[in-house]
Every structure is written in structure tokens, then in C-alpha cells.
Amino acid sequence: MEALVAMTIVAVGLLGIFSLLSRSLSLNRVVSDRYVAAYLSAEGIELVKNKIDNNVINRRAWNSGITDGDFEIDAYGNLDLNRVNGSQASLLRFDNDKGSYAYAGDKVTLFRRKVNIELLGRGDELQVRSIVSWVGRGEADFEVVLEARFFNYWK
Amino acid sequence: MIELLVALGLFVVVMSIASTVFIQSLRTQHSIVALMAANDNASLSIERMMREMRIGLNFKTNNDKTEISFVSQREGPVKYSWNEDEETIERNGVALTSKNVAVKYLHFDLFGAEPNDGASTRVVIRLGVSSNEKRGVDIITNLQTTVSSRQLDV
User: Fold this and answer.
1) DSSP alpha helix (H) spans, chain A
2) Distance, in angstroms, between B109 CA and closest chain A CA?
3) Contact B32/A28, CB-based, under 8 Å?
4) How far, in Å, CA of B54 to CA of B60, rounded?
5) Which pLDDT value is given to residue A154?
6) Which of B94, B13, B154 is nearest to A60 (CA)?
7) What is the pLDDT of residues A66-122, one digit of tens each?
8) pTM of the shown model
9) What number of other Cβ atoms are within 10 A of residue A15's Cβ?
10) Cα gap A3→A6, rounded to integer Å
């Protein structure tokens, strides 16, 4: 009887350690995913800024080719803002050889990036929100949202 | 006597399993802490690179894109590079990442860096970060971000 009780206690203790181990491993995954998402989100903002600067350099309207809505933009493309099809942005892909995230690549990632743009202040202000979302541990929804505002200070 | 032997045997088996699991948990915990520290450290290095690149001019990369040089508005010529042997990020030849970080790869993709090319310079930074823990969990965090230089060639 004593042995049974002792074994039960030990088994419960072991299960606790096992679950702690698996939980800490998966939480590490969550932390890593957040790092990746934060940088991909920052990239979305920078790409829109680069597009604005390209307009300025080429003496076009500062917000030429930039309209209200939800878009996808690729660091390796020609900075076209492609409107999001449907309710969700496409999954980003990872190129194992290059180590790059884009919409072409051999490995589908967890991450979706949507760049939400709103023209404010009679066209002299742009509100850019870069939203990276993914389904992570325990099928939970995660999201990193960064926002920047750009102004037409060249006018 | 037999009961005692059986009990002892069971006790030894159970205790050895428990201690193995406990030691493994400690090791895993240790390597996870190391990995988080590595990510934090790499993050600081990326922030520094991005901050300097934002106000940089005259960007150039080497052929295999593991090195980028530019002129920082505040600090003059700056070179960021990947030291493959040490697995570190270097700034002007001095390690920027600490020894607990293993930078598995670092590449800089440069766009719009030619003078009068009608494009603003942007740099895509890609790197793989892991911890230098010898018995650590073999996880590489693949990071990518882009910096758009605020110095326009108009």
C-alpha cells in the first residue's frame, strides 16, 4: 500500500516535470515567433516608406500608387501594393537557400502580413499599420501590429 | 527479504528515471535561457544596424552579401560584416554580438543604391540566430527586416 502511494506521488511528480519541460519548449517557440513577426512587421512599414521616397525622387505625387485599404508588399518585388484577396493575407514563404521571407519560396511559414493604409488630412498624411498574424501554440491567434504616420513634408 | 529487494529495485529504477528527467529538464531550461539571451543580443545588434543604416549614404555590399559598407552621417565610414568562423556580427572589425550568440548566416540585399537610379536605397537584412550553448536545443531563429535610408539622392 505504502509502495503504491509512493509510486503514485513519484509518477505525479514526473508528469509535472514532463509537462513543464514541454511547456517551456513550446513557450520558447512563441518567443522566437514574436521576434520574427516583429521584424517582418517593421519591414512592412519600411517598404511603404521606401515607396514614398521613390515617388519623391521621381517627382511624382508623394502618395502615388498608395491608396486606402489592406495590402501585401514584398521586400524582393518592385514594391507594388497588392490588395489582400479575401479576409486574410497570404502566408509568407521562407526560402531555405536564401534565408528570406517573401511570397515565393519553398517553405510555407505561419506568418501573414497585411499592410493597412489610410490616407488622412486631405491626402497629406498616411497612416500605415503593418499587421503580422499567425496561429501559434495551442492553435491560438497571435498578432504583432506596428503603426507609423508619414506626412507630405515635401509639398 | 524478497519484498525488500523488489522495493529497493523499484525505488532505484524510479529514482534513476526521475533524476534523468530532472537533469534533462535543467539542461533544456538552461539552453532555452541561452537561446532567449542570444535572441535578445542579436536584436540589439539589428537595432543598431538599422539605426545607422537609416541615416547612411553610399551603400555597398561584397559579392556574397555578407558585408555592407556605407557612410554614416554621424560616425563616417561604417562596415557591418559576418564573421563566419566566430559566428558573430562585426562592426568595423569589432564583434557586435556577444560570445553566447551564434549568427549562423547574415546577408544584406541592397536595392536602389546606385546614384541616380531613381530609387531610394533599401537594405534587406537576413540572419539566422542560435545560441552557442554546446548541448543546447538546435533551434535557429530566421530573422528578416528591411531598412529604408532616409537620405534621398534627389
Assistant:
1) 2-57
2) 9
3) yes
4) 14
5) 72
6) B154
7) 999 999 999 998 899 999 988 889 999 999 988 999 998 889 999 999 999 999 988
8) 0.88
9) 11
10) 5
